[in-house]
Design brief:
The complex is a heterodimer.
Chain A lengths: L1 E10 L4 H11 L4 E8 L3 E8 L2 H10 L4 E10 L6 H11 L6 E5 L8 E5 L3 H8 L1
Antiparallel strand pairs in A: 1-3, 1-4, 2-3, 4-6, 5-6
Chain B lengths: L22 H22 L1 H10 L20 H6 L13 E7 L7 E6 H17 L7 E4 L7 H13 L2 E3 L6 H10 L4 E4 L1 H11 L13 E4 L6 H11 L2 E8 L4 E7 L6 E3 L4 E6 L13 E7 L10 E7 L1 E2 L11 E2 L10 E3 L2 E3 L1 H9 L4 E12 L2 E10 L8 H19 L4 E5 L14 E3 L4
Parallel strand pairs in B: 3-4, 3-5, 5-6, 6-7, 17-20, 18-19
Antiparallel strand pairs in B: 1-2, 7-8, 8-9, 9-14, 10-11, 11-12, 13-14, 15-16, 17-18
Helix pairs in contact in B: 1-2, 4-5, 6-7, 7-8, 9-10
Chain lengths: 128, 443
């Protein structure tokens, strides 16, 4: 399933992630999952939230570079080899996973992986 | 008149004649040309016509140069809004050359030239070169970029018209530039001042002694530079150093040049009429007062420009120049702060860093230079902001931009700097003179 993800550019220094979360809190946005890809000096915060567009607008007006991007949420069965079979399908279609993380699930349902691809249409077709 | 600054030196070139006209005679020519230019612009260019109509000015109202303040201004945005040919006043069949400025935002600015315009441009550049003491016997290495940018082909045309031996080296490839300079025996070099500083720095590495080359004159333009840079170039390359002023919207290089008195830039007033205005009110200011330079083309046909706002801050020097030229001078334009620093034995001017940033479209040209020293080694870090539309949700892509900026700056200053991409608006905007260099080195 195609879902919206929030991507925010952030300097890798103390306090900056707090400011992002503060901004989201003030906008009444609930974070479902948050993850950080970092380099020594900066990083990208990626989050799945309940109100993506509002969150992006709030962050932009707080002075951040925030972007809403389409990613795939793929349910993976809770057994050995399940992720492999998803990845194999992507790989067979010549699709490269740009990045991936797990979506936090409150109940004991199957895990859901958030996956980013350059060509999301093709990925949706292959994994959909 | 002091003999000391006499660049004519007994071999007067007829092209220089217009530089020395009696003021009243020059004024007559300016008035005639202005009326003709206004008429051409009014009759053929929608934008000029509607602007003049809005002010209730007719071409017949412009009889002398004193009437120029009745005319509307032209802004850079007007050139962008009428992209590509909206300000052309002649049929496209008459256009023999197009140039374009890269422009830091969005669409470029396109300028066109008729055959007569080309001759006018060549002659203007020639007159500037003559002011610098360049002669027919000189070998002129043109190291400005050739292409849509007016710098390379502009200097080329002027030097060739003068009869010099032109070496169209174009920009880039430092080692080759130095080799050509030495082996071809260049006596004059034309490029950006920051690039020449870079050549001086690199010359040691390639075993070229700049002081021993036949090079005697440097003609530098296309970016602001300082007296300090001039002194550095004089001292390290043993050459006379001249500023050449121009902007592609008006003609390209050759709008004005520096004579041997090195006290301001002579504007070729018979072709390009200068005014100084108060940038806030638009009111003309008298000679000697500082304000924004506004230029009107007086003889261009393809693209007559009325009262172009350059946004360069300067003043007109009306006092006679020791060189004897009657065309007025403007003070050299170096509105940017000059805080050159030396790191790892290399002289770096912030304007060089800025020039490097300007070539990368993904970043803004708002920047800060941080100097630190770790175990006796200097580290230069350039903090720069991305433009929002280039923020991609991909670390490899961000890293590619960082490397691109790094390579662009290295291409100019020759040493490696660290690039730190910072959050938007992190770098404080300053009004007026920006402080760019933050030196935290403990020496």
């Amino acid at each position: 399933m195609r879902i919206k993800q929030l991507s925010v550019f952030l300097e890798n220094t103390p306090g900056h992630l707090c400011k992002v979360c503060q901004t989201l809190k003030s906008a009444g946005v609930n974070i479902l999952t948050i993850t950080i890809a970092e380099t020594k000096e900066y990083g990208i915060v990626r989050a799945v939230v309940d109100k993506t567009e509002e969150a992006a607008a709030a962050l932009k007006s707080a002075g951040f570079f925030a972007k809403v991007v389409d990613v795939l949420a793929v349910e993976v069965e809770d057994r050995p080899g399940a992720l492999l079979s998803v990845l194999a399908r992507a790989s067979d279609s010549g699709l490269n996973v740009e990045y991936m993380y797990a979506l936090t699930r409150p109940n004991n349902e199957n895990p859901v992986m958030v996956m980013a691809f350059k060509d999301i249409d093709a990925a949706e077709k292959a994994l959909g | 008149m002091t003999q000391k600054w006499n660049d004519i030196n007994g071999d007067f070139h007829p092209a220089s004649g217009m530089d020395f006209l009696p003021r009243e005679h020059l004024r007559k020519i300016q008035s005639q040309r202005l009326s003709a230019t206004v008429k051409l612009a009014y009759e053929n260019v929608q934008l000029h016509r509607s602007r003049m109509d809005a002010l209730g000015v007719k071409p017949g109202d412009i009889k002398t140069v004193d009437d120029i303040s009745k005319l509307p201004f032209t802004e850079k945005t007007d050139l962008r809004d009428t992209y590509p040919y909206g300000l052309f006043a002649v049929d496209m069949s008459e256009i023999v050359r197009l140039h374009a400025s890269s422009g830091t935002t969005g669409k470029p600015i396109v300028v066109g030239y008729t055959r007569e315009d080309m001759r006018l441009w060549e002659t203007s550049v020639m007159r500037c070169l003559l002011m610098n003491g360049v002669r027919r016997s000189d070998f002129v290495q043109v190291s400005f970029g050739y292409g849509l940018f007016t710098g390379g082909l502009g200097l080329h045309g002027g030097a060739e018209a003068l009869g010099c031996t032109v070496i169209p080296a174009s920009g880039g490839n430092t080692e080759r530039q130095l080799m050509i300079m030495r082996d071809f025996g260049a006596t004059v070099v034309c490029c950006t001042p920051s690039y020449f500083v870079h050549l001086i720095e690199e010359s040691k590495k390639y075993g070229v002694d700049m002081k021993k080359l036949p090079l005697r004159i440097g003609v530098f333009g296309a970016e602001p530079w300082s007296e300090r840079m001039r002194a550095f170039m004089r001292e390290n390359a043993n050459i006379e150093v001249f500023d050449i002023y121009g902007l592609s919207e008006i003609a390209g290089p050759g709008v004005g040049g520096e004579c041997c008195a090195h006290d301001g830039i002579h504007i070729l007033e018979d072709n390009f009429y200068p005014e100084i205005i108060d940038p806030d009110t638009g009111k003309p200011l008298p000679d000697g007062e500082e304000g924004e330079l506004v230029i009107t083309t007086l003889a261009k046909r393809a693209m007559p420009i009325l009262r172009y706002r350059t946004h360069d801050i300067t003043s007109i020097i009306a006092e006679p120049c020791p060189c004897g030229r009657t065309v007025r001078r403007i003070r050299r334009i170096d509105r940017r702060c000059d805080d050159m620093f030396i790191s790892r034995g290399v002289n770096v001017f912030p304007s060089q860093i800025e020039a490097g940033l300007a070539r990368v479209e993904e970043c803004s040209t708002n920047y800060r230079i941080i100097l630190e020293r770790e175990r006796d080694l200097d580290r230069i870090t350039v903090e720069v902001e991305l433009l929002e539309k280039y923020f991609a949700d991909s670390l490899p892509q961000l890293d590619a931009i960082r490397k691109k900026i790094q390579a662009s700056i290295m291409g100019i200053i020759g040493i490696r700097v660290e690039i730190r991409i910072v959050e938007p608006n992190k770098i404080p905007r300053s009004e007026g003179k920006a402080k760019r260099v933050f030196d935290y080195r403990k020496i």
